[in-house]
Q: What sequence folds into this?
């Protein structure tokens, strides 16, 4: 016997009431009630009143008595049932496996009946196909296809820039000629009309090239997916990877190498960089790689020369790790959230638009989506802050403090972060855009409670929660050098950031998820050698380095003693 096999029982509800003429004479009512009673006691009372022609003035009393009876009998029923089940469980009379299987069946039936019928989406199928082929001999072919697409896009962008440049130059010459003839044969109205015509011409040209680029991206995206699925089907059926006849690689020479030799280093010399292996934690030590490098964070995103062997190898690693648990990310500082964008976000968008995005939405669509989705949360936060400020002002009204006026702005604030995903950048898959106030970061007196530092904490937490194992972040919270960034200023800022990041990484160990294996600390690309050396020497004072133990060779006397 189980909880499901115990059937409901019927109890007899008794109710008596006096007649209207003689109170000593009682009418006795007996009604069978099913226990547990699933319906409404008031509904049952109405049925009893109508069936037995009971006076309506007894309705409240009858309802009270019936509700009390149902509650008492239901409690008794459950107590007896539970006592019987506990006794059976103690005596090993219950079939626990049967109960579990029965509940499993009921749960599955309920899910099938009421859950949303959702199968594998096209995006998931494409992701699985790409991940399988990119870890097969088809990797070289896939990169060749993507490079050919990227070259087409870059050529189109080059033609667009040349067209706009020629148009701008011609319009500039026309405007200069009109201005030169002002008050002689040209009026201000004609100049204004010419400026309006120039603006309209610029808009038409920009719109035409934008439509052409969108059409090209959509065509390449669709063709790439069809070709990839056809290649996977052929690979599964024949275990061979021959280039389909409709592939853009069909015109390539079989003897041509995928990558050409890398060009010689630039005359500027090698880039300043230094790597360390550190240990974090007192009992359970974690090993991390830290790399300090003087470089522009956008260098991790741009793929300038697709025929360069170094650039091709970077794209190779990015493709292999695209659908894995070892993603790479970079932190970009920006002072204006979408839709009002400014460098370096605009430069990132330009780098992402240099090649077709085959796996995610294009960067413009992602930024528009961010601008739309943050409206509600930002308005809620602003209203909450205004409410708190108003309450504080009301407490201080005795001192003549005026209550603040409500703010309607929807912009993100310092310390907020928005994220974009990419598959067509050089070294990163995820970009964390950290909103900062450049004027406050110019000061060397920021603390660990500064919104930008707290934003870094949120970024590291999000990275650990979403399979990001390698992240690059600005060590000085600046992408460029300025006059106030003296040696002492840089040392204080670097010490603050390193100590905070150390604490955040230790804290991230308890959050679960991926482990931040590699941390890249970026310095402005024009960092002086002496400043770079000082900052590199500061790191061993904050982190515990992993150094090999150096032993001296035994002396002749020691070897003689060991021989005895």
A:
């Amino acid at each position: 016997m189980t909880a499901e096999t115990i059937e409901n029982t019927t109890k007899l509800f008794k109710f008596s009431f006096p007649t209207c003429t003689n109170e000593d004479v009682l009418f006795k009512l007996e009604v069978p009630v099913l226990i547990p009673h699933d319906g409404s006691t008031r509904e049952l009372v109405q049925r009893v009143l109508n069936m037995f022609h009971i006076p309506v003035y007894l309705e409240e009393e009858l309802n009270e008595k019936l509700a009390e009876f149902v509650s008492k009998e239901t409690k008794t029923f459950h107590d007896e049932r539970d006592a019987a089940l506990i006794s059976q469980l103690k005596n090993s009379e219950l079939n626990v496996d049967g109960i579990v299987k029965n509940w499993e069946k009921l749960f599955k039936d309920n899910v099938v009946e009421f859950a949303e019928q959702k199968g594998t989406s096209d995006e998931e199928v494409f992701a699985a196909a790409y991940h399988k082929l990119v870890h097969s001999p088809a990797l070289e072919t896939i990169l060749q296809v993507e490079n050919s697409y990227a070259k087409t896009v870059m050529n189109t962008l080059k033609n667009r820039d040349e067209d706009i440049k020629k148009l701008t130059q011609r319009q500039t010459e026309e405007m200069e000629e009109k201005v030169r003839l002002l008050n002689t044969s040209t009026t201000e109205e004609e100049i204004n009309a010419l400026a309006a015509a120039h603006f309209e011409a610029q808009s038409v040209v920009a719109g035409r090239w934008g439509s052409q680029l969108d059409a090209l991206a959509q065509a390449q995206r669709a063709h790439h997916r069809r070709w990839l699925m056809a290649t996977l089907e052929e690979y599964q059926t024949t275990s061979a990877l021959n280039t389909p006849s409709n592939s853009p690689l069909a015109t390539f020479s079989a003897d041509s190498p995928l990558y050409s030799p890398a060009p010689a280093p630039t005359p500027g010399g090698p880039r300043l960089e230094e790597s360390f292996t550190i240990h974090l934690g007192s009992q359970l030590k974690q090993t991390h790689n830290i790399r300090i490098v003087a470089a522009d964070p956008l260098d991790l995103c741009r793929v300038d020369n697709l025929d360069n062997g170094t650039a091709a190898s970077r794209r190779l690693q990015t493709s292999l790790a695209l659908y894995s648990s070892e993603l790479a990310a970079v932190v970009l500082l920006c002072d204006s959230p979408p839709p009002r964008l400014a460098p370096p976000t605009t430069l990132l968008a330009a780098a992402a638009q240099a090649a077709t995005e085959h796996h995610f939405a294009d960067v413009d669509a992602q930024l528009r989506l961010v601008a739309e989705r943050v409206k509600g949360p930002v308005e809620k936060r602003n209203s909450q802050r205004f409410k708190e400020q108003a309450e504080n002002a009301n407490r201080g009204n005795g001192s003549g403090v005026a209550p603040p006026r409500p703010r309607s702005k929807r912009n993100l604030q310092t310390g907020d972060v928005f994220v974009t995903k990419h598959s067509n950048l050089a070294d990163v898959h995820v970009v964390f855009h950290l909103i900062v106030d450049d004027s406050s970061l110019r000061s060397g007196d920021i603390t660990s409670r500064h919104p930008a530092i707290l934003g870094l904490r949120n970024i590291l937490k999000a990275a650990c929660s979403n399979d990001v194992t390698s992240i690059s972040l600005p060590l000085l919270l600046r992408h460029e050098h300025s006059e106030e960034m003296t040696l002492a200023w840089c040392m204080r800022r670097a010490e603050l950031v390193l100590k905070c990041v150390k604490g955040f990484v230790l804290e991230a160990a308890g959050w679960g998820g991926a482990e931040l294996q590699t941390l890249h600390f970026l310095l402005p690309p024009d960092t002086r050698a002496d400043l770079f050396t000082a900052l590199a020497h500061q790191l061993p004072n904050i982190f515990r380095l992993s150094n090999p133990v150096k032993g001296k060779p035994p002396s002749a006397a020691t070897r003689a003693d060991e021989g005895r």
Notes: Residues 273-388+410-545 form a domain with the Leucine Aminopeptidase, subunit E; domain 1 fold (CATH 3.40.220.10). Confidence is low (pLDDT under 50) at residues 243-268. The chain has three domains: 9-112, 135-247, 273-388+410-545. The beta strands are 9-18, 26-35, 273-280, 286-294, 327-334, 417-421, 430-435, 468-474, 518-523, 544-545.
